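Researcher: Please translate sequence to structure tokens.
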Amino acid sequence: MSSIISISIDLAKIDKSKIIQGKKGKYYNLQVFVNDEKDKYGNDVAVSNNQTKEERERKEKKVYLGNGRVVWTGASNNANKPNAAMEAEPENNANNDLPW
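Model: Translation complete:
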């Protein structure tokens, strides 16, 4: 299933030391959390900066940069489920060549 998520972040909260210089530009790694329920403002998405392993081990508090909402979700496709073909019952068992 695919979704479109609209978010806003507070640029003043970005830790400039976490900006990474890549081959094609500068990058800032984020984490996006999609919640099952909306808050009182209609938001169901939160964005924070990525934490390093050391920051997680020190149990440092996440810095939340902003929030947003899911604005579109596509329909799921049962054909992509690995067991979908196995769940279907044959319509006429008399036509199969199985010995049992």
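Researcher: Any highlights?
Model: The helical segments are 53-57, 84-87.
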